[in-house]
Please model this.
Amino acid sequence: LGAHEIQRFNRDADETIAWIAEKDSVLSTDDYGKDLASVQTLQRKHEGIERDLAALEDRVRTINQEAMRLCEIHGEHSQQILAKNSQIEANWEELISKAKQRKQKLDESYFLHRFLSDYRDLTLWINDMKSVIAADDLAKDVSGAEALLERHQEHKSEIDAREDSFRATAEAGKMLLESGHYASDEVKEKLLTLDEDKNALLQLWEERRILYEQCMDLQLFYRDTEQADTWMAKQEAFLINQDLGDSLDSVEALIK
Model:
């Protein structure tokens, strides 16, 4: 009976060592994702591995308890039993450490690629907004100038609505820098570029606002000048009119 128990213990122990080695192989990859989608896929895969490790931990604990029990009953085999158990414990501790390290690196990769994704989205949006703002032609009348200024203000509202996104991305970048992230130089460069691009967009909007207000003033001047010319033309036509009236009613009509 004793030999059978020890044989079963050795078989279970060897199976556990093999399972630990299998998980160790899976965790030994250096692939931490090349973009946000691939990182998230790897994170989900790692969550599955962690569930497997939770089940494996129960097996390691059971092996340990069985080893202690067998050593008490079969002292003459205790050295071999303890050696096998120590090997399992050492391999298990190394596996747990490797799993924690991989989870940490995947988290670091996720936060980096999420920042880079948000950065790209905002940069593309800035370029699109610049094109939209610069595409408007100057108005040729007062109503057109009014519509242009109104549309330009709507562009500013769009820019203001993105403020939370700019702030969140900047804060995410600063957190990466403060954590001493391996890509800190790239993050610092992207933060600087994003800030410069945003300021350039605001500067373009302000330059256009001034231009459109000047256009509005010019169109108002043209309108007022045209109205004055029309009035003066009427007065001139009246003054050169030789009809002085031939009755009281006609004279009063001319005066009006």
About this structure: The CA atoms of residues 115 and 171 lie 10 Å apart. Helices lie at 2-27, 36-73, 78-135, 142-161, 163-178, 184-239, 248-255. The two ends are 133 Å apart (CA to CA). The chain has seven helices and no strands.
